[in-house]
Specification:
- 24% of the residues are buried.
- The protein has a 4-stranded mixed β-sheet with strand order 1-7-6-3, with no helix packed on it. A 4-stranded antiparallel β-sheet has the order 17-16-19-20, with no helix packed on it.
- The radius of gyration is 26 Å and the shape is elongated.
- By secondary structure, the chain is mostly beta strands.
- Helices cover 0% and strands 53% of the residues.
- A hairpin with a 2-residue loop joins strand 4 and strand 5.
Length: 241
Amino acid sequence: KTLTCFGIADTMKAVVTSGTSPFSYSWSHVTPVSSLGDSAINTNTGTPGTKTWGVTVTDINGCKGAASVTILINPLPTVTIIGTNPIVPGTKDTLTAAGTGTSYLWSTASHGISDTVIVAPLVATTYTVTATLNGCSTTATFSLNMSTATGISSIPPAYVNGEVYPNPAGQTLFIKFDVEGAPKQANVSIFDIRGKELMSMQEEIGSNAPLPIDIASLPAGLYFVKVAMNGSSQVVKFVKQ
């Protein structure tokens, strides 16, 4: 095996094809290691990268032989789930997996492998997503709770349908809304690719004028803008040039 993942234990076994038994084994370049004679267990908890492990075998006559193997230890991807919590039962919530994965698998099969899913549970539900990068995986969970402060009927289900432009953006990002009814108060947040909230603001949004957001201070990269309103939310990806 020449490829493994950070923190995943490997068992290496020395296979002797000549010499006279019994044999003794001396393992090298394995840290940390648990040596079990002709086998060694490495936990791969050092620094990710290319590393070489070796073994020297000595037979009963003092004759020696050596072998080595080079293994690439890939880092585990990072992943966190961004979403509104709690929500009014039955309203839509956009859950976005933010991190370094190249593919995502959600706990509900119907959600597919996209980094974003839209859910509308009636009861508290825990969602899980597994991010994969170069064959290595990390799992994150998001426990979505139901709002009990107002009840289902006291807040009508508000649907947020927003788009961002330009994308990629330079100094200013605009969000255009298609909001049912009169203008409403919304919380607008920006997250980086690791799910860290960088900006948060309260804005009154409606279907007329687009909302400008000053992103001049953000370094170039991939970001998420999240709009949450009356228990509904939407998350949209954008690129800062």
